[in-house]
Amino acid sequence: MKLLQGKSVCIALGGRPVLNQIDFEIRAGEMLGLIGPNGAGKTTLLRLLAGLLSPDTGRLMLDGIAYSKLSPEARARKIAYLAQHGTAHWPMSVEHIVALGRLPHLSSWQGPDRRDDKIIQQVMKQTDIAHLQQRSFSALSGGEQARVLLARALAAEPEILLVDEPVAALDPAHQLEVMSLLRSYCDQGGAVVVILHDLRLASHFCHRLQLLFNQTTLATGPVEEVLAPAYIEAAFGITIIPGSEQAADAFSPTWKRLPSEER
């Protein structure tokens, strides 16, 4: 089932084209990895999908309904967005930060009930922050803050979770835990769109990849197809050392940089 679709999406920011003729879709139960070099438009695409930006041309649809016909509240109940280097601007406890994820499901005069409290405790346990729940968010390390903000996004129980580089500030063990948690979320019927720079993690956890390059889609499809040597060389200017064959063949592929005159 296609939850979210984009057709011929284009956007320019500050007079500069950022995305050009992008087609996009995400289905229930899958993790789609957005990969590509810096400046390819990955974060802009994620912000478009979150409804924080509007395309200049093209269309975005959620459950077959155009974004323009959906209220922000309706989108917030279906889509959660976790920005890169996200933060909280108030001296609040971890538990209160996570509880903010329940706001799309509460009326303006309604406080959290037992079900909300259960969900809050559950996602804190899943993200390994339950022992931090009474701590001030501002007193946490960058990695701990990243896991708190992920818990807040999960607390919203969205159908679609949009995540921008969720493992950038994490140690290797927590990187694997977070990616496993996102994959489990998909296994339970959710959909995840995640920006990743680590191709090893992308190859191991994602169902499909979309490779952006020069503000458009260079390749999209199954992991092994998108991580083919020709696409890796074109987008990143690197080639796989002979013998490793394909980037998706191993969790730890070996790379070498192409000389600039070959790029």
Distance between the termini: 39 Å
Coarse shape: globular
Computed over alpha carbons, the radius of gyration is 19 Å
**What is the CATH architecture term of the largest domain?**
3-Layer(aba) Sandwich
CATH topology of the largest domain: Rossmann fold
CATH class of the largest domain: Alpha Beta
Strand content: 25-35%
Q: What structural class should be given to the helix and strand makeup?
A: alpha/beta
Question: Overview of this structure, please?
Answer:
- This protein is α/β, with parallel strands linked by helices.
- The chain has two domains: 2-227, 3-Layer(aba) Sandwich (Rossmann fold); 228-263, no CATH class.
- It has nine helices and twelve strands.
- It has helices spanning 42-49, 72-78, 94-99, 114-126, 142-155, 172-187, 199-205, 223-226, 229-236, and strands spanning 2-13, 16-27, 31-35, 57-62, 65-66, 79-82, 160-164, 191-195, 208-213, 216-222, 238-240, 255-257.
- The strands form three sheets. Strands 6-7-8-3-9-10 form a six-stranded mixed β-sheet, with helices on both faces. Strands 2-1-4-5 form a four-stranded antiparallel β-sheet, covered by helices on one side.
- Helix 6 links the parallel strand 7 (160-164) and strand 8 (191-195).
- Helix 4 (114-126) runs antiparallel to helix 5 (142-155).
- The longest helix is centred in the C-terminal third of the chain and has 16 residues, at 172-187.
- It is globular, with a radius of gyration of 19 Å.
- The chain starts with a strand and ends in a 6-residue tail after the last strand.
- Mean pLDDT is 86; it is low at 245-263.
